[in-house]
Amino acid sequence: MDITIVMLNGTSHTLSVHPEDTVGSLKQRIQDRFGVPCEKQKLMFVNGQKTHLSNDVMPISSYGLHPGAKVSLLVIEPPTIQVFVRNEKGKLNTYDIKADETVDNLKRRVQSR
Predict the structure, then answer these.
(1) Distance in angstroms (rounded) separating the CA atoms of residues 22 and 56
(2) Does residue 55 surpass a pLDDT of 90?
(3) Which of 13, 19, 35, 72 has the CB geometry, 3.0–4.6 Å to 44, for a possible disulfide?
(4) Which residues are CB-contacts of 61 (< 8 A; sequence separation ≥ 6)?
(5) Where are the transmembrane segments (predicted)?
């Protein structure tokens, strides 16, 4: 069956899927086709009410998707966090980091200043 993936910018793309495909496999196909990493995808289907396709192991048919269904794709970015680091001379520096940034990456940024 064909479903339509609707992006926030209004563009839409048709994907052929099987009712027994899982939400996780749908996210993988979206990643392969549109380059949006699975972990940044939030899928929503409106069928009388808003339904979030949140369980990656569930088949898409369990959410009521049908041929011609429109699934909205929201791209979720991790929030930015401000970190304050005082150096050995007492100078305070501010760093904007993402929640998924590693400590090693922050250390490299601090050392490069």
Answers:
(1) 6
(2) yes
(3) 72
(4) 19, 20
(5) none
Q: Are strands 50-52 and 70-75 parallel, antiparallel or unpaired?
A: unpaired
H or E element, residue 27: helix 23-34
Residue with the two structure tokens 């401000």: 82
Residues ≥6 apart with Cβ < 8 Å to 31: 37, 38, 41
**Nearest in space to 50 (alpha carbons), one of 82, 72, 28:** 72
Task: Kindly give, in sequence order, each residue whose CB lies less than 8 Å from that of residue 110, ignoring residues fewer than 6 positions away.
Answer: 85, 93, 95
CA-only gyration radius of the chain, Å: 20
**Could you tell me the two tokens for 12?**
């839409």
d(C-alpha 113, C-alpha 104), whole Å: 15
Whether residue 103 is predicted with pLDDT greater than 90 in this model: the reply is yes
- The mean pLDDT of 47-66, rounded to a whole number, is 93
